[in-house]
Amino acid sequence: MDPRDPPPTLTSIDSYLLSLTGKAGRNRIADRLAARGLRLWHMAVLAALADFGPHAQRDLCARLGVDPSDMAKVIDQLADGGHIARTRDDADRRRVLIDLTGPGRELLAELTRAAADVDRQLLAGLTAAERTRLHALLLKVFTTVRSIPD
Amino acid sequence: MDPRDPPPTLTSIDSYLLSLTGKAGRNRIADRLAARGLRLWHMAVLAALADFGPHAQRDLCARLGVDPSDMAKVIDQLADGGHIARTRDDADRRRVLIDLTGPGRELLAELTRAAADVDRQLLAGLTAAERTRLHALLLKVFTTVRSIPD
DNA sequence: ACCTATAGTGGGTCTGCACCCACTATTTTT
DNA sequence: AAAAATAGTGGGTGCAGACCCACTATAGGT
Questions:
Q1: From the list B14, B52, B63, which residue is nearest A122 (CB)?
Q2: By the CB < 8 Å criterion, does B21 face chain A?
Q3: HEC states along B18-65?
Q4: pLDDT tens, position by position, B5-53
Q5: pTM above 0.85?
Q6: How confident is the model at residue A135, as a pLDDT?
Q7: Average pLDDT of A69-84?
């Protein structure tokens, strides 16, 4: 018996398996981001802008579930790197409109590739069909998670 | 369009879905543990002892991948609560043998029930057959994760 | 104009996790 | 018997995440 086997009592818990595999994925992606001086929220912001177009900063917070104060810092760094553009909304000068720049789009593409790479590593043990099924199941779980309160 | 929809660029990444759903599960289980003054490692230790029998403290560290220094603190708290018994190994008096006590076994059963509860919440959107398939897939991914270096 | 509400910023806290080093007690090696 | 290795402990560090409050600037309601 391998003295490094994990306890079956734990591995029979789906939440535990999700948590561990999720952490593995998260850490790997975080590493790739860290190599570029970024963290997960930076990528999330870029993705939100790419998928849904320009946002007021506040709307980004609502969409991603981030504290406005934390978002300000993330936005700051992305702006410093030239990956997003920040402009005052002339209709409501309290608002700051955030948009992707060309370099930002490029960066996101790069990060997306890195993430796909991590997926490939993580799911190396699955056939293509299994990956498809896993993805569908995870989407369902994700929907459930989003719908139930904390 | 729901202004709270997550970016598809993110939800198409399996590692991201694993990470989010895993975090949801983790947090919920952590909450239940916190209500009893415990954290995840406490449960992991109890599970390892229940599944594999008594361990030297060092072997628990190896099995669970915890720093020996951190393990010492976890062990300390479990011993304080009367959930494990700590005895010096007479054959090698450097070693401390850790074993589950009756109350420890009870506590683990309780925690396992709580975890199953969380699973039920998280996977509420899946049919029984889907849950079975998800579990099998997660086990495979878990095996892969364990086999590849960090 | 006045009062209230909202957008964003800057500064800080607290928590959990992971890690690391120095130290004591004990055992093994030579 | 001395030296090197091992088990466990205590006391730290650094980081990331989530949160919170005070503040400025602007807008909207009356």
A1: B14
A2: yes
A3: HHHHHHHHHHHHHHHHHCCCCCHHHHHHHHHHHHHCCEEHHHHHHHHC
A4: 999 999 999 999 999 999 999 999 999 999 999 999 999 999 999 999 9
A5: yes
A6: 98
A7: 98
Closest residue (CA to C1') to nucleotide C18 in the complex: B67
The DSSP annotation for A67-129 comes to -HHHHHHHHHHHHHTTSEEEEE-SSSTT-EEEEE-HHHHHHHHHHHHHHHHHHHHHTTTS-HH
Pick the CATH number of A38-147 from 1.20.120.450, 1.20.5.170, 1.10.10.10, 3.10.330.10: 1.10.10.10
* Nearest alpha carbon to residue B103 among B64, B41, B50: B50
Q: How many CA atoms lie within 13 A of B150 on its CB side?
A: 5
**Within an 8 Å CB–CB cutoff, is residue B56 touching chain A?**
no
Closest Cα partner for A39 from A73, A12, A15?
A: A73
Scan residues 39-98 of chain B and list those with Cβ within 7 Å of strand C. Answer: 39-41, 66-67, 69-70, 92-94
Q: In this complex, is the C-beta atom of B73 within 8 Å of any C-beta atom belonging to chain A?
A: no
Chain A: closest CA distance from residue B83 (Å): 17
Q: What residue spans define the domains of chain A?
A: 38-147
For residue A90, report the phi and psi dihedrals to the nearest 5 degrees.
-75, -25
